[in-house]
Amino acid sequence: MSESLPGAALLPPAGPVPGAALHAIDKAKAEAHARLIEQMRRILGEDICKAFEDPKVVEILLNDNGEVLVERHGEGITPLTTMPAAKALNLLGLMASYRETVVDRAHPIVEGAMPPEFLLARFAGCIPPLTPAPTFAIRLPARSIFTVEDYVSRGILTDAQYEKITTAIRDRKNIVVSGGTGSGKTTLLNACSDYVARISGLDQRIVIIEDTREIQCNAPNVVQMLTDPDSGIDMTRLLKLTLRYRPDRIFVGEVRDRSALALLKAWGTGHPGGLATLHANDAEGALTRLDQLCQEAGVPSQRHLIEEAVDVVVQIARDPNHPAGRRITEIRFFD
Asked: CA-to-CA distance for 139 and 319, rounded, in angstroms?
């Protein structure tokens, strides 16, 4: 008679996990998530939590002096509340836990999308020694669409500029919205995206690629993709995947790395009518910036490809003297 090892009878049987056990695992995960959300809400406090519910809020910022600022559409940046360093550190720790990473001296940066309960807002934060005290910036997704007609009514776009942009959209030109930090690039791209949605039917398939969800598009045939750094899925990989999805138009939230090369190739090979944003100070600088980003992929200058793929650059800038706080400074066609 064969002998069994001590304790062998205690081992679970081989095979699939029983349904009851799976339910218990799911329940435990849901409870842990609920506790994390409650802790986050408690740390953020009433004022910041209310800011997440305000459709005008676009950014929540914590400075190293503990002051929390909020930026609202058309209202600029104003003080909101304060947050002690200890609470801020706890918040970064919870975000690191949610992102399945850690935050400590060896890993002082936490970034990524927040939980759905916080609108999948884009979170970026760091701790000492990078800053004297914990800091963060939270970018909220658009909750309301500022249409191109709204830009005209508020004097940001002239009637002539409106005609140029809407004609370019109808003619399926590839448009880059360029500007500095906080100039309103994504808001303007969303206005263009809204116009695309209004003129598109099921025959127009739109694929949107972003790091965090910011682009709104209510067209009837849309696929939205997000990068996943944890899985090594970057924008370049998604752009290559996008070509298998039969896109008619390709929108990119922000071009900031070597993925510029893949985007330009996609735009220039039978997928016109795209939209993208880019950090640059003027239209010519936008083309130079695109070229620099392409070269990050280890290729020589792609100026010829850029001239083939990019049809229009719309430059937007902050303007404290304008009632809306920003204005369109240039619309450059490269046909």
From this structure: 21
